[in-house]
Every structure is written in C-alpha cells, then in structure tokens.
Design brief:
The chain is mainly α. Helices cover 52% and strands 8% of the residues. The strands form four sheets. Strands 4-3-7 form a three-stranded antiparallel β-sheet, covered by helices on one side. The chain has a two-stranded antiparallel sheet with strand order 1-2. Strands 5-6 form a two-stranded antiparallel sheet. Helix 14 packs across helix 15, helix 16 (331-343) packs across helix 17 and helix 19 packs across helix 21 (422-435). The radius of gyration is 26 Å and the shape is globular. It starts with a helix and ends in a 7-residue tail after the last strand.
C-alpha cells in the first residue's frame, strides 16, 4: 500500500490504480475505497460512477468507513442503463474481489487442533564453534572501547563503509588492517534452522563493525534437529553475536561504545520513549529487542509493537507477527498479523507468509497459496522469495505449478548475491535439465558442485544425490526420453 499511496500523493494515478488494485485483490478494503474515489472524481481516468459504485460496494463487504452510505448514494443517482451495467460488472468483479473467495483463495487455514503443540529443539546440543564465548573471534578485546578512528561499518549488502582520515593512512598498512580485523563488532541476526539442523537464510537485523568473519563461522553451526510431533521441521530463530551478547546497558553504551550509542541515542530520548507516534513506538521496540541490556518493563516490547501495529504501521505489524510466531507464542495472533502486513505489500511479510504455507506445522500446506505470496515478494526483489518461489516452480507436488522458465529467470536474479549458495546451484541444475534435456551434462556438473558445497556446510544432500543418480549411470550422463 505504501507504493500505491506514494503514487497517489504525487498524482501518478495510473501507477496508483495499478498498486491499489494489487492490494484489493488480497482483500484490503482501504484500497477498494480509494479506487471508488478515484473513479468517482475522475483522477487520471474518465469519471465512471458505475465503476466507482462497484469499488465502494466491494469495500462495504468489510464495513469499511462510509463505503456503504457512499455506494447507496451513487446507486440512487444511476439510470436504468447504468444500473444494468453495474449488475453485469459487479458479477464479474465479485469473482475476483469477493471477500469469501479472496479468503478461500489466498488466506491461511490454521490447524487449530495443533496450536498447543510446539516445535521442540534443544539448543544445548548445538555446536556453536566458540561463538557462545564472545564468538571466539575477538577474545580479550571487549574490555577496550571501540577505536572510532579505525572503526568500519558494513552496509546491508555486507560492503565495508570505512571512515578513515588521510592521516591514518600514514601508519603501516599491515598493522592498520590487523587492527581493523580485530575490532569488536555487534550483530543481531535472524536465521532458519533447517530440518537437518544446519543454519540457513541468515538475515542481518542490526550490525556495527566487521561481521563477515562471524557470519561465516555461524553458517557452520550445527543444531539438533527441530521436531514437531516427532517429525523434523524448519524453525526460525534469532541470535546475538559479538557485543550484542553482552547485554550492554545504556550507560555502558554511552561511555564505552560511542559509535554504537550515537546510532540509537535519539531513539532513547525521553521525548521518543513516551511518544504516542506509531513509528516512534516501533523504533523504540526494535531498539529494545536489539539491545537486550537496555532497561524495559516486562512485556513492554510486545505492548509497543501492538500499539504501533494497531495504528496501521505495516513494519510493526510484521515484526510483531514474526516475533510471536518465532517465539511460538499466541500463534493465531501471529499468523493474523503476518497476513495483515503481507496484504499491505510488505515484501518480508509476503515472503514469510508464502514460506509458512510450505513449512508451518500450524497451517494447512498449500503450494498454490505459497507461490502466490512468494511471487509477490519476488517481484519486489526479495532474495529468499526468489529462491523459494523457484523451488516450488521446479519441484512442486502439483505439477501444474511447474514453470522452469520463470524459475530460471528468478535464479538468474540471484547470481550476484547467492552465486555460491548450494541450493541455488541445485535448483539451477534442475531448471536447466527441465528446460532442455540436452543440457543434462551441464546440469550434472552443477548439481555435483551443489552437493560438494552443501556437504562442506554439513547439509543433508541425500535428496540431491538421488537426483544425480537418476541422471547418471556408472558415472556417465544418460539422456532419457522423459517428457519435459
């Protein structure tokens, strides 16, 4: 909805209509209500009272604001010909935008009988490779303050953003580089523990300093298998690395870690912490989540997020839903907030919801619903969504969803950011082979690389090996007469 609102505010009505329609198709009544006004007032289009009335009637399904009274007023002004046209058009629109059909077509079906059952996992058995002890990477450095003159940050893509003065370059370059690499760092990440216990899909939530070495080490961590009713499943977790593990208080941050404190100081001001503004509440909640040493009242984070979410801030809706789901707490509410934020067009929420249709033990599995939401996130460039949607388009149980051409186009978009991801290599091999069986020799080489890299990271690659064996006989590539 933010893209639609931005286009509307700049009077780019063609783009606004396109974006509001995308929101209307998943049941956002405000989008339907706004489309009613656009056609009634002729904003970027010819005035069309019939079209306007239809959109207000669709919004009235949700009893949204004054939609019902406006629709009645417009209907009363229509002549017989317009009324006939409205009846005909409304029947067609109802098949696309009808409330019950939308819910049936796109919304999750919660398995209520399973909501009391939890995913079980013992983190005590995890091999954290020294990361539990100040990450085993900066031993002895945490007592010293950060040297701000040589402190380097990384942007969201992992690129280093340095802040070095010309005077600093006069020192020995090897010594300077060594000092930089030893600087303390701060990282809060969310990640997935796959059914085989390996770490996947690391998302950096907040970081300071050089974190690449810690992330490389963290990718090698192996957990016990997460299980639900005895079956291995994937589970999303969150972990603090480096300085984030130290529960730094506000005073310690201010005194010893100025560079970090400067980034959050304004959020912790008295004015912001008591603000009733949705964004201020959201940012304060996020800061409390990421800096666990900051004082807070019991339940304050959830309270702040819920107040912000109820004011309509989509980021708060997503974070609250994701937090509740990750903590396996109030799962019904968690899924509801994830759906609400996905309907608003937030890519993270669209991806998360789409993934849940495949991985959640509390939601009925539905590949069609999954690919719908994943495609929406993929079209916004969401990396994990591109990969997950490609997987479904290549390997769905329902073969009507198979679409090797689109899957390969998604995988090509991942070449820069996930080129060495074994799963991307495996899926690329599948896509090549499905598109053209004559590419099987290239696909075999690619799947061999995927297996090698996956095994290096401790992944269970047995299913990939089975595919390789089907494609080869005695180490030789076999071209079959399979229908592709």
């Amino acid at each position: 909805m933010s893209q639609a609102d931005a286009a509307y505010d700049t009077q780019n009505y063609t783009a606004a209509i396109k974006e509001y329609t995308k929101s209307a198709i998943v049941g956002v009544p405000r989008a339907m209500h706004t489309l009613g006004f656009i056609y009634y007032q002729g904003q970027g289009v010819t005035v069309d009272k019939v079209e306007s009335a239809i959109w207000f009637l669709l919004a009235a399904q949700y009893k949204y604001e004054n939609s019902t009274s406006i629709a009645r007023s417009i209907l009363a002004s229509l002549n017989d010909a317009d009324t006939g046209e409205l009846t005909e058009r409304l029947e067609h629109y109802g098949l696309i935008y009808g409330k019950e059909l939308i819910q049936e077509r796109y919304y999750p079906v919660v398995q209520s009988e399973l909501l009391e059952t939890r995913i079980e996992m013992s983190t005590a058995g995890a091999n954290l490779l020294g990361l539990e002890d100040d990450d085993g990477l900066t031993e002895g450095l945490f007592s010293a303050g950060i040297n701000e003159e040589i402190y380097a940050e990384e942007d969201e893509n992992g690129n280093q953003v340095e802040n070095l003065s010309s005077a600093q370059f006069s020192s020995n370059s090897n010594t300077r580089l060594d000092n930089m690499l030893k600087q303390p760092y701060f990282a809060v990440v969310e990640y997935v523990i796959a059914p085989d216990g390996t770490v996947r899909d690391i998302e950096i939530l907040q970081s300071f300093g050089r974190i690449n070495l810690a992330l490389r080490k963290f990718r090698e961590v192996k957990y016990p298998q997460p299980k639900f009713n005895g079956q291995a499943v994937a589970v999303t977790k969150r972990i603090n690395l480096g300085l984030a593990r130290q529960n730094l208080s506000k005073m310690t941050l201010a005194q010893d870690y100025h560079h970090i404190y400067r980034g959050i100081k304004h959020i912790l001001s008295d004015e912001k912490t008591i603000s009733s503004n949705a964004y201020d509440q959201y940012m304060y909640a996020i800061t409390l989540m990421n800096f666990e040493g900051l004082w807070r009242e019991e339940g304050q984070i959830d309270h702040l997020l819920e107040r912000s979410a109820n004011q309509g801030l989509v980021e708060a809706q997503y974070v609250l839903g994701n937090k509740l789901y990750r903590e396996q707490k109030d799962l019904d509410k968690a899924i509801s907030w994830l759906l609400t934020s996905a309907k608003q067009g937030l890519a993270n929420a669209e991806y998360r919801l789409g993934d849940l249709f495949i991985t959640s033990p509390w939601i009925e599995k539905d590949e069609h619903k999954a690919v719908f939401w994943l495609d929406r996130a993929a079209n916004q460039g969401h990396v994990f969504a591109l990969r997950k949607a490609a997987e479904i388009k290549l390997m769905a149980e329902d073969k009507t969803l198979h679409d090797a051409k689109t899957a390969l186009s998604y995988l090509k978009r991942l070449e820069e950011v996930e080129r060495l991801n074994p799963e991307v290599q495996f899926l690329t091999a599948i896509a090549w082979e499905k598109q053209d069986v004559r590419k099987r020799a290239e696909a075999v080489k690619m799947i061999q690389q995927a297996i090698f890299r996956g095994e290096q990271q401790g992944w269970d690659t047995s299913a990939w090996y089975d595919v390789l064996m089907r494609w080869t006989t005695g180490g030789r590539v076999t071209i079959s007469n399979e229908n592709h």
